[in-house]
Amino acid sequence: AQKITQTQPGMFVQEKEAVTLDCTYDTSDPSYGLFWYKQPSSGEMIFLIYQGSYDQQNATEGRYSLNFQKARKSANLVISASQLGDSAMYFCAMREPYGGSQGNLIFGKGTKLSVKP
Amino acid sequence: ETGVTQTPRHLVMGMTNKKSLKCEQHLGHNAMYWYKQSAKKPLELMFVYSLEERVENNSVPSRFSPECPNSSHLFLHLHTLQPEDSALYLCASSHTSQGAGGYTFGSGTRLTVV
């Protein structure tokens, strides 16, 4: 079973508008971390934002915010005021600190975001 | 430049060749990782080194052989690869294999096996 599910293979957004990229996760650990990464065509994975499972408030980093709904096990990324440079693949990832994964990152399949001028 | 440097950026090799991928970080991290990214598949964790010791090997074929001589360097030795091994190989590092904080990734090596 997939641990990280990103249901949107591709998304389009108009420049300067906001966009939400969906991510749901599955874990039985009470302690975990959720990450979003951006991967432009150059291949580099760029860390965007982190949400810990015990964090009371939603994480924000500049134009990025994470809509964390723990009961629904969702961690959607919201990008406000989209820019052309935001066009890239976006990956949601989870780290479980215990068990066989040894705290390693598990990635979703990604969402390709295209920003239209 | 993220602080994690991977070389080469691109590599084309025949199935009988032997080559090595290199990863270097000077961020003071003590855990390093190799991930494989194939088209239309999630990133797959291949190897984890924490404090220079391998802590996880996700059943990767023996034609991939990692080496971590110190906390700053990580290698992936390749031999007798198959065409399906063509992919983007990403190296990452973090402070430990547990705890908060993000991983820092390199730009990857795009490998083509012919």
Summarize the helices and strands and which ones pair or pack:
The complex is a heterodimer of chains A (117) and B (114).
Chain A (H helix, E strand, L loop, with lengths): L3 E2 L4 E5 L4 E3 L2 E2 L7 E7 L6 E7 L7 E2 L2 E6 L4 E6 L8 E8 L9 E3 L3 E6 L1
Parallel strand pairs in A: 2-12
Antiparallel strand pairs in A: 1-4, 3-9, 5-6, 5-10, 7-8, 8-9, 10-11, 10-12
Chain B lengths: L3 E4 L2 E4 L4 E8 L5 E7 L6 E7 L2 E5 L6 E7 L2 E7 L7 E8 L9 E2 L3 E5 L1
Parallel strand pairs in B: 2-11
Antiparallel strand pairs in B: 1-3, 3-8, 4-5, 4-9, 5-6, 7-8, 9-10, 9-11
Protein model, in words:
The complex is a heterodimer of chains A (117) and B (114). By secondary structure, chain A is mostly beta strands. In chain A, 0% of the residues lie in helices and 49% in strands. Chain A contains no helices and twelve strands. Chain A has strands spanning 4-5, 10-14, 19-21, 24-25, 33-39, 46-52, 60-61, 64-69, 74-79, 88-95, 105-107, 111-116. In chain A, the strands form three sheets. In chain A, strands 2, 5, 6, 10, 11 and 12 form a six-stranded mixed beta sheet that branches. The radius of gyration of chain A is 14 Å and the shape is globular. Mean pLDDT of chain A is 90; it is low at 98-102. With 114 residues, chain B is mainly beta. Helix content of chain B is 0%, strand content 56%. In chain B, strands 2, 4, 5, 6, 9, 10 and 11 form a seven-stranded mixed beta sheet that branches. In chain B, a hairpin with a 6-residue loop joins strand 4 and strand 5 (44-50). Chain B is globular, with a radius of gyration of 13 Å. The relative contact order of chain B is 0.34. The model of chain B has no long low-confidence stretch (mean pLDDT 89). The chains are: A mainly beta (117), B mainly beta (114).
